[in-house]
Amino acid sequence: MQVYEAPIRDMRFVLEELHNDDGFGDVEGFEDFDSDVTTAILEEAGKLCKEVLLPINWSGDQEGCKLENGTVSTPEGFKDAYKQFCEGGWAGLGVAEQWGGQNAPHALGKMVEEMTCSANLSFGLYPGLTGGAMVALEAHGTDELKEFYLPKMANGEWSGTMCLTEAHCGTDLGMLRTKAEPQDDGSFLVTGNKIFISAGDHDLTSNIVHLVLARLPDAPAGVKGISMFLVPKYLPNDDGEPGEHNKAGPTAIEHKMGLKASATCQMSFDGSKGWMVGEPNKGLEAMFTMMNTERVAVGIQGLGVGEIAYQSAVYYAKDRLQGRSLSGVKNPDGPADPIIVHPDVRRMLMTMRAYNEGCRALSAWVSRALDASHSAREPEVRERATDFVALMTPVVKALFTDLGHESAQLAVQVYGGHGYIQESGVEQFARDARIAQIYEGTNGIQALDLVGRKLPHRMGRNLRSFFHPVSQFCEDHASDADIGKLVGSLQQSFGALQLSTGHIAQKGLKDPEEAAAAASDYLRLLGFVAMGYCFAKAAKVAHAKLAEGTSEEGFYKAKLTTVQFFFDRLLPVATAQFMAIKSGKASMMELPEDAF
Ligand SMILES: Cc1cc2nc3c(=O)[nH]c(=O)nc-3n(C[C@H](O)[C@H](O)[C@H](O)COP(=O)(O)OP(=O)(O)OC[C@H]3O[C@@H](n4cnc5c(N)ncnc54)[C@H](O)[C@@H]3O)c2cc1C
Question: Residue limits of the Acyl-CoA dehydrogenase/oxidase C-terminal domain (predicted)?
Answer without folding.
Answer: 281-450
